[in-house]
Amino acid sequence: MLRRLIKTCTVRTLGPFRPLSSVQKIENKISTVENSSEIIDPRLVSNSDNLNENPPESSVLQPCKEDISYVAPYLRPSFNFAAYVNKSHTLQQLLKLGVRLYKWEKNQEVPPYILQLDFDKDIKSYIIFLTDLGLQTEDLGKLIEKNPFIFKEDLENLQVRINYLKYKKFTDEMILRIVQDNPMWLSFSTQDIDKKLGFFQKSFSLTGNEVRSLTARKPRLITYDIEHIKLNMFVIKEEMGFTPEEMKQIVLQTPKLFMNNQHRILKTFDYIHKEMNIPLETIVKMPQVLTCREFRIKQRHQFLQKLGKLQFDTKKPNYISLITLVSGSDAHFATEVAGSSIHAFNAFLKTM
Question: Is 258 helix (H, G, I), strand (E, B) or coil?
Fold first, then answer.
């Protein structure tokens, strides 16, 4: 294209471009390259023109010459109430109630919320409400510490939730225990609590009195994750072999068991039932042994076995109950149950 353009141009036409007199030379060079098989020597090409040449890769083992002082590991945002306590009347009053403010510092949502509250306007009425239920100062501190967002709940709704329990024939003592042991209870709506109580009554065939007794004994179980409880029910019934009636007996005696990890429960059960040969009929009478860790039972069982003092038959002398086996400190077990010494027990543990 360039050669054709040059040939058609006259001297007159190229007049304005006289300063570029090297055009003819360029045309000759182009013609020479096109008519020859000459290969351009890559050594004549400058580094800036060589697009295929990659810069040498640096090794992680080579010393770093760049300034990386600004690089630091990611730290989650943190908060410290200490800078606000002297100036905040609200924080001072919460401290008097026994609230451990540092427990809130890990939750990014709590500090900003608490700091914008006025104790007299936003908190005092809740303190009066909870005090009327029978909570003491130390109970108030624990409840607020565990459930700081209770101040977001409408006071009328809180009263409705208490009235619901009274309507369901929970006594004042039961209600007080529920609120004490489960600070999150009042944050659940009446509809949610009603569904949860209905689930336990139906799943375990409980009477009204049994539902109230279970709720007062372990209120956290009622608001616990339902799917977790269902999984433990399956493990206890299908994998361990307990009947529905026995499972009812277990939940009334040891409700905590249904909140534990299913693998840990099953591991403990397998050792008691299969290694120690304890029948289901005996386990169901003292299901709290299933909340004990398997290795603790194994240690004590094998120590008694070494001493020749294994006796779990109630009809024979020197009977040792499962509760006695798992209860108390190692020192108490070694001296009072095994009739040995803590030094002998510790020496035995080193051989396991």
Answer: helix
